[in-house]
Write a structure and sequence with these properties.
Blueprint: E1 2-6, E2 9-14, E3 17-21, H1 23-27, E4 56-62, E5 65-70, E6 75-79, H2 80-87, H3 89-94, E7 112-114, H4 123-135, E8 137-141, H5 149-157, E9 169-171, E10 187-190, E11 203-211, E12 218-222, H6 223-233, H7 235-243, E13 246-251, E14 256-261, E15 264-266, E16 272-275, E17 282-283, H8 289-306, E18 312-315, E19 322-326, E20 330-334, E21 344-351, H9 353-367
Parallel strand pairs: 7-8
Antiparallel strand pairs: 1-2, 2-3, 4-5, 5-6, 8-19, 9-21, 10-20, 11-19, 11-21, 12-18, 12-20, 13-14, 13-17, 15-16
Helix pairs in contact: 4-9, 6-7, 6-8, 7-8
The chain binds fe (ii) ion (FE2).
């Protein structure tokens, strides 16, 4: 990293890039009690009021302190590392959130965490969240099997996302269910609730309280790994799956929920944002026949991959396990079971990513 000041222009070279630092950009970051509230770190003035003719008259870097003087007489100093953090695009956007590790059925070692009482501010929670962001899931072992203990655990990370199903749901065979999840049949890989607005719940938790049946295995598929496979091997299908907008609908006697989205949604950088796969509740619109035919071929491709042994993890949740997984990246399901063999009881709930992102950023201040 190098800093150069010439003719009112300050340039910083970092990672093979040279950044010209704009005087206003620097000024609106100028540290100091008169500019930023000590407790909240929020700016105490309106940055658009900074004079646009502002110039840098002097700049000097000594160790990590970058001292600057402006032509209106105001001066101050910055920690150059704070500036560098913002020049690094990846760090600036993702902070401590690690790169994903895409996986398939060959994944040897499951990401696991041991439950601890009051673990929210401990290194173990930092490790748990790091694994969650890498793999899209983590199994938390030895959680007390008390009714609704899940809510206590999840609320320690952030407020549980309540829906029209309530704060939590019981996955247990029950008479006259309003959802297929409550019947002991197999549930093929799917994502939950794509019909919700503004988006499907980000994270799902399933806490196993009892599992006395011989079937009822849990399944997980890395949707982004499948998407990557299709991108490499079948570009036409990938194009169709990332551009065909489907409608998703849920209805019961009280409500009709609807939203739209692609089976594979990309963000504006072309990175994976979300997969949706809930074939009991999706409706493709009447687009042109030719496009529809390509879409139906593509849907067959993705459906076969989601259900293939190449990508699916199959395992049995034990009482005391919490399975935490990314509902925008992973698909989940279960094998059938015989409800007459014994009890199978899971409790589930949702959480949004701002809670896990926020906690990870907070914990990274302590442990990174
Ligand atoms: Fe589900």
């Amino acid at each position: 990293m190098q800093v150069q000041f010439q003719k009112n222009s300050l340039s910083v070279s970092h990672q093979d890039n040279v950044f010209q630092l704009h005087p206003v950009w620097l000024r609106e970051r100028l540290p100091g009690e008169e500019y930023f509230d000590i407790d909240t770190h929020q700016r105490l003035y309106e940055p658009s009021s900074i004079h646009l003719e502002l110039q840098i008259t002097k700049a000097e870097l000594v160790d990590t302190q970058l001292s600057i003087e402006f032509n209106d007489g105001i001066k101050g100093s910055y920690n150059i590392n704070d500036i560098i953090k913002e020049l690094d695009e990846k760090q600036n956007k993702k902070g401590p959130i690690p790169d994903r590790i895409l996986w398939n059925a060959k994944l040897k070692k499951f990401p696991e965490a041991q439950f601890e009482v009051d673990m929210i501010d401990k290194k173990s929670m930092y490790n748990l969240l790091m694994d969650f962001y890498k793999y899209g899931f983590v199994i938390i072992k030895n959680v007390p099997t008390e009714n609704k203990y899940l809510l206590k655990f999840v609320n320690s990370i952030g407020p549980v996302k309540a829906t029209n199903f309530g704060e939590y749901f019981d996955v247990i065979s029950k008479p006259n269910p309003n959802d297929l999840a409550y019947k002991p049949i197999a549930l093929p890989p799917h994502t939950d609730n794509p019909y919700r607005k503004p988006a499907a719940p980000g994270i799902q938790f399933l806490h196993c309280l009892k599992n006395e049946v011989s079937g009822g295995f849990s399944t997980l598929v890395d949707g982004f790994a499948v998407a990557e496979h299709i991108k490499k091997n079948n570009p036409e299908a990938f194009e169709s799956l990332t551009s065909t907008n489907l409608r998703y609908q849920f209805q019961d006697k009280d409500i009709i929920l609807e939203n739209w989205g692609e089976l594979i949604e990309l963000d504006k950088d072309g990175d994976y944002k979300q997969v949706r796969y809930s074939t009991r509740v999706d409706y493709v619109p009447p687009i042109e026949t030719e496009k529809l035919e390509i879409f139906y071929q593509a849907r067959k491709v993705i459906s076969e991959l989601y259900c293939s042994s190449e990508f699916e993890l199959k395992f049995k949740l034990q009482p005391g396990d919490i399975m935490m997984f990314d509902n925008h990246r992973l698909l989940h399901g279960r094998t059938a079971y015989d409800a007459n063999e014994g009890m199978r009881h899971l409790q589930g709930c949702y959480l949004e990513f701002d809670s896990t992102d926020g906690k990870l950023r907070h914990l990274a201040r302590k442990f990174q």
